[in-house]
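Input set for joint prediction.
Command: fold jointly, output tokens.
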Amino acid sequence: MLLPIHEALRAALRSAITRLYGIDGDAMPSIAVQMPPNRGMGDLAVPVAFELARIARKAPRQIAQELADDLGPVDGVAAVEPAPNGYVNVFLDRVAFLTGRAGVADPEPAADPNGPKTIVEHTAINPNKAAHIGHLRNAVLGDTLGRLLRFQGRRVEIQNYIDDTGVQVADMVVAFRELESMTPADIEARAAQPDFDYYCWDVYAKVTEWYEADPARLALRAQALHALEAGGNEMADTAAVIAERIVRRHLATMARLHIGYDLLTWEGDILRLKFWSRAFDILRDAGVMTRPETGKLAGCWVMPIEDAAAEDGENASGDADEPREKVIVRSDGTVTYVGKDIAYQFWKFGLLGTDFHYRRFVETSDPPLWATSSTPSEGAPPSFGQADAVYNVIDTRQAYLQDLLAQALQAMGHTSQAERSVHFSYEMVTLSHGAARALGFTEIDTTRPFVEVSGRKGLGVKADDLLDRLADAAGHEVVKRNPDLTTDESSQIARVIATAAVRYFMIKYSRGKVIVFDIDEALSFEGESGPYLQYAVVRAANIFRKLHERTGLDEAAVVASLASLPGDALARGEGDDLWGLVLEAARLDEVVDQALRGLEPSVLAKYAFGLAQAFNAFYHRAPILKEEQVDLQRWRAAAALYFKTQMTRTLTVMGCDVPSRM
RNA sequence: GCGCCCGUAGCUCAGCUGGACAGAGCAUCGGCCUUCUAAGCCGAGGGUCCCAGGUUCGAGUCCUGGCGGGCGCGCCA
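tokens >
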């Protein structure tokens, strides 16, 4: 854990800079702490002398020398040396560091139950069909973001928005009645089947084609949509059955990936509890929303928007200087999606002045899963909403709409909330031509670089299918290597591996990169993959298992023996290799910090891979069991132990477990 | 038309608030299992960091202008 050392070093450097050059306050340059290219040069490096060179009118080299001489003792630091080119290089106290940390769990700080709360909303899959790989990217990114925040001790509430009254569910109601000729009782019976989400996947594709064959049929969709929004009718009841059942299927799929939620927010409750009318009053009374008397938007309630991208393409040249407006309430009095979202966003920040009712959605889960409700709460729900910061995990195509949410907050004068209303965006998952072909789709436009996933067309890789294939492949490998395992054991391990494979695949790309999904690549357990990371930890664990079997020495005994050992194995020069692994393992807190500053979970994934690589190299170079020199053996074991602890924590932040064997 | 994102090795991608040598995985080729599990390790080849200017002691990284690709811009969600 390096951040405390970084801070101590910065503080010491700042006072040295003030002493030596009289620089203070705003004139103080920010002090970056980096890592030198190799351990021989040092463990930390500070390039601040380059910047000071201008102010102090001295050569960087000389400044670095003066800083190193003047610095004084810093906790955990053994030596400070100026580099010929001007860096200040810092060497940590290796023996003290490893002795103090091997075998120590370094537990994450517990969140202050009264501290500021961060809401992360993710997943939000339309409850009308099975989840696919595009949804997986959303859920894995969102879940990992939540874990990163919790690692830093932040109080986090995970919400999953359920659009149970939208077009997609309405389409299913239409499809079941018109195409499948099913009664409400038929639908209820079918929905009880475990494969209901897969069944809906196909029916949804069918109804899309059915609409296309005769656009007049879209009137039925509009009719169903109105019935859903109104509620209290047969179609709405049917929709509720479909949505609830599909949501439970989605929860099961996500549970396979260790993804869970604190609250399911149902759009139907937002409608029934009239959240929108509250938001409407607030926006209208503040004059943020107005109603033009003339023009093409006459009779609508509109909000001015700042984004030039909103301009209608057809008249772009005509009235470019006109203020742009977004329709929030249509001239027929119905509210748009944006309006409902504004109301929801206001509620998240505790700015709506009203609240949901709540019910337990899953009785047995831990932590408990709650859902919003329109009828008075049962049990004793915790306080939801009231957030200090909100992250909405939604793909980049919604950037414009998400920007409107912050604008609405800003327009109401909620400046700090607007700043903390973050669209955590990411690019979409698409299919390679080969993957689309493998799914049986023949009409592929090969002039385009990839094929877009489409739930409407039924074109996409289902999440459960991907997990099943990965678990099959992993199970095969596990059995090959561990023939003594029972079927239960090997399939349990296979599931753990499959989860890591999917999760790692979904966060290893930076958010802004389009993922072109290729099945062979996703099924690979070699190289930069989740299983590679797990394998490294399993190897480390095996060392300790065998060490205990052969010598009776356990982890605690190794740790206890360190204090009385000579530290030569860690000495500068010959110990650089061993120390390099320890230092890399120590970076986790710094890496988490970096991942959050950049809102970029892939930073954590890359670090995890590099750490596993470092251990695997160490594993081959530095044997432990057969090392006869006791001090060397123990220090190596201590390094392996620290690696095992840190890598396990890293995997936990990524939502992955470590298998008992592989 | 306007806005956002992407452009680094054959392919897929890293490169932290500008800073020590442009790296990894896959693929190709060559080594390493009577050894703590080869889901691994070691080595080799492979790059005008899209182009052109600019800022800077220093630019893959920042600015401007292009080029190529993707996505947005609705009284849909």
